[in-house]
Amino acid sequence: MKNYLILFIILLLLELAIAYFQFNSFIRGFLGDVLVILLLYSFLKIFIKNNVLKTAVSVLAFAYFVELLQLFKLVEKLNIQSEILLIIFGSVFDFWDLLAYFLGFLLILLIEKFS
Q: Among 91, 95, 110, 104, which residue's Cα sits nearest to residue 59?
């Protein structure tokens, strides 16, 4: 559990740096989405001893659900103005995000298999 906490903190700082320093579109728009899956997974693993696959699939499903909400423009329909909620939920559906999330999922499985 301690290792997941350390990983979570490192990934959170990395995600904040990516957002703050406005890196190029690949890093911000794609790599950031890959890493957010690892971030969510490591956060859950701090508290949950559930098996790796169930937790990783849950994180992937959540990310896909959020992307689906973007496809249906839920943020606009609910007239959400909060910057924090806009960052969390996003506002633009992008197929490449789905691929990034899946790569993050695969990365989790690889890391857990070899650790």
A: 104
